[in-house]
Amino acid sequence: MPKEQEIVGSAGRDFAMLERNLLSHLRLAVLLSLLSASLLLHARLPTPSDPGSAQTPPSTTGLVIAIIEVIAAVAAIAAGTWEYWQGYADMCAQRGFLRASQTHLAVLSIVGIVVFATCLMLISTDV
């Protein structure tokens, strides 16, 4: 059963901020999942001069990168959910400012490093 909480100050705005952040994490996870699916299916955008360049040969490197991307997507969802529930607990306790979690920052930093490394790897090699 939902818990009723009176609206005090910026509670509505803070709750909307928490939902936007959670949806941003979900969007990041969907994008990482799409990247991993394209690696697993060996799909690329073709160059206009060579229409057959969209297909790449199978490689184990692509499989490993795809698995890392899926793990990063799950970590992004977990970090978003963690931040949402921590912020909701702060709102229920009626703290003046929502606290930022260092765990959330660390997890998203790792996800960012994974995305950057994947981009460098995909640019430098034919995976």
Total number of helices: 3
Q: Kindly state the mean pLDDT as a whole number?
A: 80
Amount of beta strand: under 5%
Distance between the termini: 50 Å
The counted number of beta strands is 0
Sheet with most strands: none
Q: Runs with pLDDT <50, length 5+?
A: none
- Helix fraction bin: 55-70%
Note the run of SSEs as H and E: HHH
Short description:
The protein is mostly helical and 127 residues long. The chain has 3 helices and no strands. It has helices spanning 11-41, 60-92, 102-124.
SSE layout and pairing:
Layout: H1 11-41, H2 60-92, H3 102-124
Write up what this structure looks like:
With 127 residues, this protein is mainly α. The chain has three helices and no strands. The protein has helices at 11-41, 60-92, 102-124. Helix 1 packs antiparallel against helix 2 and helix 2 runs antiparallel to helix 3 (102-124). The longest helix has 33 residues, at 60-92.
Tag the structure with descriptive keywords:
127 residues; mainly alpha; elongated
